[in-house]
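thought: fold this chain, then report.
action: predict
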Amino acid sequence: MNWGVVIPLLLFLVIIFFIGFYASKYLKSSADFLQEYFLGSRQLGGFILAMTMVATYGSASSFVGGPGVAYTVGLGWVLLSMTQLATGYFVLSVLGKKFAIMARKIRAVTLVDFLKERYQSKWVVILSAASIIIFLFSAMAAQWVGGARLIESFTGLSYTAALFIFAVSVLVYVIIGGFRAVAITDTVQGIIMFFGTMIILVGTIIAGGGIESIISDLAAENPDLISPYGADRSLTPVYVSSFWILVGVGVVGLPQVAVRAMSYKSSRGMHRALIIGTVVVGVIMLGMHLTGVFARPVLPGIEVGDTVMPRIAMEVLPAWLAGIVLAAPMAAIMSTVDSLLLLVSSAVVKDVYLNYINPEASAKKVKRLSISVTAVIGILVFAMAVQPPDLLIWLNLFAFGGLEAAFIWPVIMGLYWKKGNASGAIASILTGVGSYILFHSFMPQAFGMHTVVLPVLLSLLAYILFSLLTVKRHSDIQKHVFQKLWSA
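observation:
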């Protein structure tokens, strides 16, 4: 075992555990367990809000899978990844203040809480909760695979042992600290991701003899590695622009990102988060994906893309510095997993159990159930991740696309279009998820576009069409909704 690499990582885990214990004090003293455990009592300032969004969005795909694909495809993939730059800006500017005001009016703790009050429909709640549970299980499995592979690569432990260490590490601090622990650890993890990205990029450039030398080596191997079209010329302008729907605009519909727009403390904090979040996402995405491409001349012949990041870090940096840098992808993965874990737990406890099974449950019972459900979900995901897929980025993107197709229009149109109703939302969720699965299975990249584009367009049409067709049927409920959400 390479102790020079392992010791900085162990220190990182100790800090994360300490934050979990610190946050658990707030859970014990809070008058409202649900608000504190799932939303941190809505007390996120601008810097923490920005970093928790960055850390939640920056995942195994950004730090492990993405650089691995960039290694294979070339600079064209870097260009593609930069479409994510607008993510934070879009989420907070589209949802931001309006979403937070409405969420506070109805004391919404989860995205499904908002949808429940906006549409007043049992089926909207059940479909939404089911979508979150199914798709986020896939997303979590992908992240846990990434975390385990990372630990496996620099410790030499077996994959299963590495997976066990990763699972226990995440479960401990999420269970004892809830959302506040997740938000604070996200901030620490976001800072590590930011500086880790710059260190590994500079180290790789120096090892490759400078940018000019690296570009010459890439061009000599395959001129398309430095073209915007990718090594196999598969990145057409239509595909690149449509990919933006998945990783730029569509992110608004991701429950784990949307819930952060409910948790900020003030408008000033949100505006600060907009600027910080956009800059930090830009640096991380550019830096990590460039590192993936620049690693090709330094370490040629890597066959498993997911191993590029840990191998290049240990190749070009001293062991102790590699350990610190490798805490960045570990931080990215842990920060995404902890948010997803809490979100699926809230979907089960708050959206299903408290809404439809036992609305009168005592606070003590809710607390015990929340912690138990979080632990059980973690164990189930561990079981799913034992047999990992070859390239985890695709599993992760499948989950992202499914959630975006399900939620983007019920959330955005629910905020900005008063004629939208429950029939429109149900039709949109069913059309979005159903068509995404069909396109993904039978007609991926239809007309040269990313798979998510047509399902998103079809779900918008379904939302508008069914809302207009059922205006009379929902007129009484809509009056009640207007009064509750749009009145001063």
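thought: worth noting. The chain is about 80% helix and 0% strand.
final: tokens above.
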